[in-house]
Amino acid sequence: MNMNARFNLSCALLLCMATAMAQRVDNAEYFWDTDPGAGNANPMIAEDGAYDAAVEAIFLETSNLPGLGAHTLGIRVKDQSTNWGPTFTTVVVIEPPVVTAPEITVTQAEFFWDTDPGAGSGTPMVAFDGDFNSALEAISLETAVLPGDGVHVLHIRAIDVNGAWSVPFRVVVEVWGGAVTFPEIRVTAAEYFVNDDPGAGLGMPMLAVDDDFSSAFEAIKGGGIPAPVTAGVNVLWMRARDVNDAWGPSFGIVVNIDTTIAGTVGIPMQADAGFRLAPNPTTAAQGFSITFDRLVADAIIRVLDAAGRVVMEHRARNERRIELALPDAARGVYHVGIIVDGVPRWERLVVH
Questions:
Q1: Burial of 26 from C-beta contacts in 10 A (0-12 / 13-18 / 19+)
Q2: Does pTM surpass 0.85?
């Protein structure tokens, strides 16, 4: 291999700023073994000749390499605000005259119940495609021989191309009557808040896009920003709850909130909803109405506040239009459930 050859590295800079200004990489540099300090290392070049994106493909020259053996390669990037990101490091082995990065593949996987027999002594697992040749593998385990009835801990681990075993992944399963059942994994609720955490379960509720939290992965949507709104840079936090009522960790993103925008934007209804909720936004004094596209024999209207508390419930029979008042309702986003013949549909209602 020519010592003047180049090898490509991909480097991504994630800028968690929801502002109008551009997000891009402005510079990149690298060093071997000893960090000379941000801005003092060897410059790197954008593969397309210009640093004009948030994600850039960059390359470094290998004409001047350190001595033979294992070395630490450090890489970092700078954004358009002259802020240097954290340093990414990787071990590179230099051999005459070759530079190599370690190969990462799974070569074997195993599982065991409850008690660890030691790495390499578990029950072998099979790759779905019949070949352990990737860093990520789909694997299957044989459940023909199960432990005794009751609750057990299933452990799974894999070994890489360098013979290093991973830390075991564990999950609680229940064996019953010759069968094994895994715990149900799905999202049952989601919420968000700005800056200060009100406590798990006390944030602004979010809705599933398909109106049903029934999967382990859910597309979710939120409503208005919780009052009081502070203009400028804030942190928006989101989290979800599983079927066991356990809240996951909060995910935060930096947002720039503009309070100078006048008025509010109406919330469109789905074309196939079968009803119309109006006006939206509304006021507590004005209330709202629900107009169905047909005469409804049995319907329940339930209004929830931001904390998920029921603030109003109304039952209608053989009606097509329902007028509802919201006395003493505070400003904010409410969730209106329209339950017709046992089938719920949820819409957001903004009260200002």
A1: middle
A2: no
Cα 119 to chain centroid, rounded = 32
Q: Was domain 6-100 assigned CATH 3.40.1000? A: no
- Pair type for strands 232-242 and 42-43: unpaired
Taking only the tens place, the pLDDT of each residue in 143-172 is: 677 788 878 888 888 888 778 888 888 877
Between CA 205 and CA 279 the distance in angstroms is 22
Which residues touch 194 (CB under 8 Å, ≥6 apart)?
Answer: 225, 226, 229, 230, 234, 235, 236, 237, 257
For residue 168, give the nearest of 227, 99, 232, 121 by alpha carbon.
Answer: 121
Which letter does DSSP use for residue 166 in this model? Answer: P
Q: What does the domain layout of the chain look like in residue ranges?
A: 6-100, 106-181, 187-257, 275-351
- Classify strands 69-79 and 88-95 as parallel, antiparallel or unpaired: antiparallel
What tokens appear for 258 in the block?
A: 């503009």
One of 2.60.40.3080, 3.40.50.970, 2.60.40.1120, 3.65.10.10 is the CATH number of 275-351, namely 2.60.40.3080
Q: Do 6-100 and 275-351 fold alike per CATH?
A: yes
Q: State which amino acid sits at residue 229.
A: V
Q: DSSP assignment of 32-66, as one string? A: ESS---TT-SEE-EETTS---SSEEEEEEE-SS--
Asked if residue 29 lies in contact with residue 43, where contact means CB atoms within 8 angstroms, the answer is: yes
Cβ 154 vs Cβ 139: under 8 Å? no
Name which of 102-106, 196-200, 278-282, 321-325 the model is least confident about: 102-106
**Each residue of 287-320: pLDDT tens digit?**
999 999 888 888 899 888 766 678 888 998 888 9
